[in-house]
Known about the structure:
Layout lengths: L1 H5 L1 H12 L6 H10 L6 E7 L6 E7 L7 H9 L6 H7 L5 E4 H4 L8 H10 L3 E9 L2 E9 L5 H9 L1 H13 L14 H7 L6 H12 L3 H8 L3 H15 L4 H9 L7
Antiparallel strand pairs: 1-2, 1-5, 3-4, 4-5
Amino acid sequence: MDALLKELPMHQSLARMFAAVGQDGFWRSLVDALRLLVPLDNALVTLMQSGRVPTLLADFEFRAGTDEREGLADYCAGMYLLDPFYQAACAGIADGLHSLESVAPDQFQHSEYYLSYFRPVIGMGELQFFCTLDGVVLGLSLGRNTAFNAQEQGRLLCVRDWVLAAMRRHVQLLPPEGKVAPAAGDLLALLDRLDARLSERETETARLILQGFSSKAIAQRLGISPETVKVHRRNLYHKLGVSGHAELFARLLQPPPPTA
Length: 260
């Protein structure tokens, strides 16, 4: 009995969450229940589909004095194209609970995207619950300034099945317009916009550099030697007039030139 009484706040939170399925307060009640299991600094709910801008269904910021809205605007404007979880969703990731470490490229934490955007907005740790509905991936992102340890991930794995079931049911009860992602963007198209006459290999190399892949990993993915990757890297930097990864990232964020 004593053990059950200690868990009373969780039981009460679950009751509120299940009562909110299909209602406006569902995502907040679900996140509040998960916060009883692990500390969180932020949470974000998105619908993701290849070739489309993610649809934001809900976002929560629990850090005092922090406004995540500006970061989310950058995300929808194009930062999502470098998000490892978005890439994993587009590649057909299995339903479940996934860690940043399991989906990120080998040099992701050294990428300019991670240093300039991901770490300030999300933090050093992120986990996502993923489930697929009619070809669209529903993701619940849990972020914080420190990494999640094995014990914390284990707690969330224990509740994974009912979390995913509740997420699916809630979205199934939404009106049709709540399920449609807006039209699309593409990282290769953004690179083409730079109008630097990059070759196909140089463009692909630039994309993988921006996502956080090392030269060795790029070589493996493209089926070429690391020395050839270095040549492509050097050539694309020269054509774009940049000296390295940070300047390449900054060029990508520049607005397109006005049309005549």
